[in-house]
Amino acid sequence: MKKTSRKKKTAAAQGSKQASGSRAKSKQSVAKKAGAKSAKKGGPANDRTHLPLPAGANWLDEVYARRRPCTDFTVAEAGQQVAVTGWAFRYRDQGGCVFVDLRDRSGLIQAVFDLSVLGDRFGEAERIRHEFVIAVEGKLRSRTPENINPKLKTGDIEILVQRFEILSKAETPPITLEEHVEVHEDTRLKYRYLDMRRMHMFYALQSRSRLNQALRSGLEAQGFIEVETPVLNKSTPEGARDFLVPARQSPGAFYALPQSPQLFKQLLMMGGVERYFQIVKCFRDEDFRADRQPEFTQLDLEMSFVNEEIVMHTMERLWAGALESTFNIQVSLPVSRLSYRDAMELYGKDAPDLRYDMKLVDVADIAAESDFKVFKEIAKGSGRVKVLPVPGGAKLSRKDIDDLTAWVG
């Protein structure tokens, strides 16, 4: 038998360690890639497998730690044990089997409560009604071809419930939560907490949040810093009346809620901040109109050492980036510009709607020769006579015009 030299043994050992280390790195690489895919799919908020459980954790604690959004599952995961929580959007009792469309803020997934699986607890499943809050655990499975719903993101899968808990019962909702059903605005506002469960309402809140984040990132990238200014201040001359707050420690004295952070941001410029912004709540005590509210939120900013070109260029970059990252809307830069003079001359207002190209046309020369005295006298003097050409407009009835006016307004 040949003897292996000590050097060869050492080399072999080192090679083994290197191979082992290489395999470990390979596993780490695979884990990182898997983590990256998970992050792309749902992000850390959806990955709950790492959440710690309290001592003596019960079944619900485990569900809360493992739950995923209803629309986070795919047919590739069929056969896995899953946990979800949400509201019962629709339910169908077909005798021995109850189907519930379970809804959370991401969307819907069908949960199947089967008598043969649940046994004695099936009776409780039959009592589930609209907007009951429930937690379920079960096996994800593919739907049969005839039961696939192509209108749902999760229309090809469902959860066969093995365990569930009714977390909260609900009375019959005073408003329907169906997306396509119109509900009077006053009723929606009265039951706002229900209205917010509708997907388009959640999308609006989510879009606003994402837009705010995009604006913050865009401004920070251009050298702005976010500074919170005081809400309680002394009253200063503004365009509307102030909301006043009594000062308890100074009887007879009041604070004023800000109509804008104007004075504070000017002080920031004097202090050398140079570029400031904040997404700020403002208050104005004025009459209600379509575009006037007693409290509103605005993107407020101020810049030092700039001219109007720099300001417009800054805003173009900001909004182009924010719209692309939030709504995937591509904005071609630079944005076309319209002078105030041209806007008034061509459209008669300083903020024209450029989605249609209906410009005002000066017909003073025609009006001067007309028999209509009002136009004729204006045209022969220093006045202007302008019209809005509407192709086919002669065929429109008064009702058609009123309907269009109401639709645009």
Molecular structure report:
It is a single chain. With 409 residues, this protein is an alpha+beta fold. The chain has three domains: 59-168, OB fold (Dihydrolipoamide Acetyltransferase, E2P) (Beta Barrel); 210-327, Bira Bifunctional Protein, Domain 2 (BirA Bifunctional Protein, domain 2, 2-Layer Sandwich); 340-408, GAD-like domain (Gyrase A, domain 2). Helices cover 35% and strands 20% of the residues. It is built from 13 helices and twelve strands. The strands form four sheets. It has a five-stranded mixed β-barrel. It has a three-stranded mixed beta sheet with strand order 6-9-10. Strands 7-8 form a two-stranded antiparallel ribbon. The N and C termini lie far apart (99 Å). The relative contact order is 0.05.
The major sheet is characterized as: 5 strands, mixed, barrel
Backbone structural class: alpha+beta
Percent range of helical residues:
25-40%
- Per the principal axes of the C-alpha atoms, what is the gross shape? extended
CATH class of the largest domain: Alpha Beta
Oligomeric state as shown: single chain
In CATH, the homologous superfamily of the largest domain goes by the name: Bira Bifunctional Protein, Domain 2
Number of domains: 3
CATH architecture descriptor name of the largest domain: 2-Layer Sandwich
